């Protein structure tokens, strides 16, 4: 009877150790995922800034093109 209980206790200890190991592995994976999430958030922010800068540049260039076309029309009208 005692040996049976000792065997069960030994089995429980092995299961406990396996669960602790699995928990450690999961903690490491969670940490890695949190770091990856932070990297992706930063990258998303950087891309949004680049997009906004490109939109601003496009607006500026469209304005400049409009000015040049108007100037060309004025010059053609004078000739």
Main traits of this protein?
mainly alpha; 79 residues; 0% strand; 97% helix
Overview of the structural elements:
This protein has one helix and no strands. It has 79 residues and is mainly alpha-helical. The longest helix is centred in the middle third of the chain and has 77 residues. The protein starts with a helix and ends with a helix.
Q: Portion of residues in helices?
A: over 70%
Mean pLDDT equals 97
Low-confidence stretches: none
Radius of gyration: 34 Å
Sequence-ordered SSE layout with sheet pairings:
Elements: H1 2-78
Brief overview:
By secondary structure, the protein is an all-alpha fold.
């Amino acid at each position: 009877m005692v040996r049976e209980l000792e065997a069960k206790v030994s089995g429980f200890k092995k299961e406990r150790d396996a669960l602790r190991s699995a928990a450690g592995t999961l903690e490491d994976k969670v940490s890695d995922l949190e770091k990856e999430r932070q990297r992706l958030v930063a990258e998303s922010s950087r891309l949004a800034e680049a997009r906004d800068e490109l939109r601003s540049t496009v607006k500026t260039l469209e304005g400049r093109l409009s000015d040049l076309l108007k100037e060309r029309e004025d010059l053609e009208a004078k000739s």
